[in-house]
Write a structure and sequence with these properties.
By secondary structure, the protein is α+β, with helices and mostly antiparallel strands. It has 2 domains: 84 residues; 176 residues, Phosphatidylethanolamine-binding Protein. Strands 3, 5, 6, 7, 8, 9, 10 and 11 form an 8-stranded mixed beta sheet that branches. α1 packs antiparallel against α5, α1 packs antiparallel against α6 and α2 packs across α5. The chain is globular. It binds 2-acetamido-2-deoxy-beta-D-glucopyranose (2 copies). One 2-acetamido-2-deoxy-beta-D-glucopyranose binds next to loops. The site of one 2-acetamido-2-deoxy-beta-D-glucopyranose has 5 residues, from loops.
Length: 269
Amino acid sequence: MFALAALSLTVLPFVSADTALDLAGIKAHFTQSKIVPDLFESFNPEAVLTVNFPGVGDITPGQTLTQAEAGGYPSIKVTAANSSVDLGSTFTVAMVDASYVGQDDDDVTRHWLMNGCTLSDGTISNSSATSITEYGGPAPPEGEPAHRYVIAVYQQPDSFSAPEGFNQANMGISTFDFEDYLTNSKLGALVGATYMTVQTGEATTSVEATSSVDSQTLSAASQTGSSSSGASATTGASGSSSSGAPDGASALTASSAAVALGFLGFLFA
Ligand SMILES: *[C@@H]1O[C@H](CO)[C@@H](O)[C@H](O)[C@H]1NC(C)=O
Ligand SMILES: *[C@@H]1O[C@H](CO)[C@@H](O)[C@H](O)[C@H]1NC(C)=O
């Protein structure tokens, strides 16, 4: 369980730009935002993804963006965990709306799906890609808690075969069963993933509490974060998804470390 003391103590010593720590941090983020298990059953990235939005810059995992800020075509830099990781050469990029915390519908809204991507100077290139669904920025329903938009890169082995219905370019944004897609297309390992949260207006529903992970405390959080993974998500009913989108962030996904630490202290003291 989280211990406020442990977090506080580790804030300073563990701040580092080290990729291994960044990876541990993103894993902590995915657990604490409940993307694991709402969207992914497990999450074992081999690389850190650095997503950059025009006019915004590099985002940190879970960063809150406005719809406009996340509207431009993002670039994705891929940094392998270490030199022994073989990422392969062909990739699929996807962005899905994992709705708000606790929503775990199988069907999620697909905002981006590109097959046949390559790496150019460590950055995802679409120069030989097939853009099944062209990048379309977040548009969470008004009044809902912040949605979690997950950007993921998968290895695309030679055995990859686009499933029926997903084999031609220019499909619009719609819902699909992401898990099924991954299985049916025979995509390879997850290279990496990150996410941002976007909300439209004031939330009129509240969500299950999550702890927030500030970028400053990422590696510290990762020391304790995994131990909270057992927390059972009160899974959202698969009910009314007018948007069909899974979304996620809670009002508590505040970005300040003070809020996060205070909240954790309150919860777990
Ligand atoms: C390199 O990173 C991968 C993925 O995180 C990990 O499984 C592996 O143990 C690491 N190898 C070394 C030598 O650190
Ligand atoms: C391909 O990438 C460029 C940026 O490198 C972007 O401007 C363009 O919209 C992308 N094309 C598609 C079809 O996504």
